[in-house]
Q: What sequence folds into this?
């Protein structure tokens, strides 16, 4: 059964311009998210995961960040070409984002309830009291008693703040959720609850999710496909089963701790020796060359092309071959 | 909140004690004999000594300090050596002028400074921001008295539109207020701009943007409210300082205000005027700052909730009940 594609990113290039350098944060990324599916973005810190997510919502820092080229098709419309006004109708309504850092994601001088209700009222033609009632329901849904509607962010713990951010993102039943490490700030039990909540919403409403995470267990349990991001590129992409069973890119293998298994007890990504290349001066050849245990001379000279080693399983490595790995 | 205010008022007492002591010591160590100033250069040394004895100037410092506090506590702020009138009366006569000047001047600078600050911040990285910064830099660095003289020359002498030293009519207030407002407006604009830029960089602004808020609401509801908090502090400080320190404007436009009064007192070594004048002006300043802090607490829940305790929780329950009522309905 071929599902409809909700989001398709084609050749996305994003750069940050700082005073003295240009940071190549996202380089030629291709990505597709089908309706009702969850795609996991994994990769080291600084790989460009958040930048990809922010590009989709077009909330990159103005003036410094720029989508240089590429298309982001959402329901067939190219987001990069929409006007600000049209974007406002999509943000929070069709596409919502759960932010990485809950401590700073909420306005300190507005009540948490107001901040949820504001989004609801913005995208629905309803009265204020109805918006407040729905906001209360959202709070209850993420496990916060609605009595705490009128409290301020500083009265909440980090985990509760994150749940408020999640409630805010889910409040308008978006078609696509960009979840940037949504559970990192939560303790394990709440983590499971939040993921279960997102799963049920996904089932009920057919919501698609782009899930950025460092947790392989979460990837195994919730994702349909995985994209491994390295230095602004997707170096390996495929269904979650394929990636776990036939990981081919040396970087993926390194991350997963050589022999990944879907039921493995290793939950965290493995640290790999060495550093990611400086995003202001990316090497000419393969970006993983310096750290790759299997590098050959050719790797430092030409960037590897994409190889489809199995249907839908793409690897950017010259050692990858068509067919099984 | 009432307890917070009461506590703050109590804290004023040691502050005032400290200020009056410092002023007394300063008067003590400044050269120039108040008795000699009163009697003039022709008076004999005996006459001067006699007056010093009469005024109690020969008593040791702690005795004079005690005497000063004692009379202040009894509502007696002393009598001017020069005019022989009670300092309190003279200050009360002058206070409305200063209050008027400072209120209008501050208001004007707020009305000009805040929109310019927002405008500059919102148009960062464009020539509009650069133009605003450039103008405010000129305004901040332009000496007050010089700007006043320009205004007087142009509007008062050349065009003859506005009176230059007659605050009895309302038009007379325009030039003094403009003089006061120029630098202050620039100061407020610069503060507003930097706070606004700081707030616009915050994550919660991105969150608000991700909800789908349009720029207008984002800036005026979410960013401005947060950015105003430090600006309120600056405005309060300006207002408080100007109460005792709008001297140049008062002198140039012949406004019989407090700054001029204390300055004349200083010039004549009229120590009762200096002592009580500075004490009263600093008390005013402290009260203004207290008011600012209360406004602060009203705007910022993080401060407010420290003093209101559980009150907000109850308000929360209220909303909860209402929503339940709606659901039951
Ligand atoms: N506002 C910014 N200005 C300049 N450079 C930035 C900015 N935000 C991110 N970058 C740079 O872009 C690159 C990608 O950053 P990004 O935040 O997308 O990484 P990430 O994969 O989300 O990392 P993490 O796992 O730590 O969240 C990094 O090199 C980072 O330094
Ligand atoms: Mg990130």
A:
């Amino acid at each position: 059964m071929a599902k409809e594609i909700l989001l398709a990113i084609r050749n996305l290039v994003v750069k940050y311009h700082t005073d003295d350098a240009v940071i190549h944060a996202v380089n030629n990324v291709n990505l597709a998210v089908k309706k009702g599916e969850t795609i996991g973005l994994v990769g080291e810190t600084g790989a460009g995961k958040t930048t990809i997510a922010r590009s989709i919502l077009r909330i990159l820092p103005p003036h410094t960040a720029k989508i240089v080229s590429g298309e982001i098709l959402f329901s067939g419309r190219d987001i990069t070409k929409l006007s600000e006004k049209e974007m406002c109708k999509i943000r929070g309504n069709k596409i919502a984002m759960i932010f990485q850092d809950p401590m700073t994601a909420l306005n300190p001088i507005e009540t948490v309830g107001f901040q949820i209700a504001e989004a609801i009222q913005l995208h629905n033609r309803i009265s204020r009291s109805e918006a407040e009632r729905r906001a209360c329901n959202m709070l209850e849904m993420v496990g916060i008693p609605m009595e705490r509607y009128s409290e301020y962010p500083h009265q909440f713990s980090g985990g509760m703040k994150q749940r408020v951010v999640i409630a805010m993102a889910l409040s308008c039943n978006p078609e696509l959720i960009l979840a940037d490490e949504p559970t990192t700030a939560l303790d394990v039990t709440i983590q499971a609850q939040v993921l279960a909540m997102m799963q049920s919403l996904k089932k009920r409403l057919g919501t698609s999710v782009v899930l950025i995470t460092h947790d392989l267990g979460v990837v195994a349990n919730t994702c349909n496909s995985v994209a491994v991001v390295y230095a602004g590129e997707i170096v390996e992409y495929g269904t979650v089963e394929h990636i776990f069973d036939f990981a081919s890119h040396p970087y993926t293998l390194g991350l997963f701790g050589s022999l990944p298994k879907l039921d493995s007890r290793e939950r965290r990504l493995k640290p790999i020796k060495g550093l990611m290349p400086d995003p202001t001066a990316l090497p000419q050849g393969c970006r993983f060359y310096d750290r790759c245990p299997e590098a050959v001379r050719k790797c430092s000279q030409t960037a590897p092309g994409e190889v489809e080693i199995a249907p839908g399983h793409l690897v950017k490595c010259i050692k990858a071959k068509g067919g099984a790995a | 909140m009432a307890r917070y205010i009461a506590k703050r008022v109590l804290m004023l007492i040691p502050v005032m004690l400290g200020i009056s002591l410092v002023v007394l010591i300063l008067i003590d160590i400044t050269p120039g004999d108040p008795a000699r100033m009163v009697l003039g250069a022709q008076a004999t040394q005996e006459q001067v000594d006699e007056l010093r004895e009469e005024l109690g100037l020969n008593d040791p410092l702690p005795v004079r300090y005690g005497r000063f506090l004692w009379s202040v506590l009894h509502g007696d702020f002393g009598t001017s050596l020069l005019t022989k009138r009670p300092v309190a009366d003279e200050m009360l006569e002058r206070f409305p002028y200063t209050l008027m000047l400072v209120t209008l001047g501050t208001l004007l600078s707020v009305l000009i400074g805040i929109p310019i600050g927002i405008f500059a911040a919102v148009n960062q990285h464009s020539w509009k921001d650069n133009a605003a910064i450039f103008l405010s830099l000129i305004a901040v660095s332009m000496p007050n008295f010089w700007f006043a003289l320009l205004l007087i020359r142009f509007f008062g002498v050349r065009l003859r539109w506005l009176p230059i030293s007659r605050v009895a009519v309302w038009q007379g207030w325009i030039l003094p207020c403009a003089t006061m407002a120029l630098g202050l407006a620039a100061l407020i604009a610069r503060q507003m701009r930097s706070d606004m830029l700081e707030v616009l960089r915050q994550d919660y602004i991105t969150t608000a943007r991700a909800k789908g808020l349009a720029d207008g609401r984002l800036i005026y509801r979410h960013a401005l409210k947060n950015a105003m908090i430090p600006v309120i502090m600056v405005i309060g400080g300006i207002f408080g300082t100007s109460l005792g320190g709008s001297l140049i404007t008062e002198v140039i436009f012949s406004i019989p205000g407090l700054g001029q009064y204390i300055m004349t007192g200083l010039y004549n070594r009229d120590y009762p005027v200096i002592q009580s004048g500075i004490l009263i002006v600093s008390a005013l300043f402290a009260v203004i700052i207290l008011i600012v802090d209360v406004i602060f607490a009203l705007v910022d829940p993080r401060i407010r909730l420290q003093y209101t305790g559980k009150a907000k929780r109850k308000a929360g329950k209220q909303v909860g009940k209402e929503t339940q009522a709606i659901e039951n309905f």
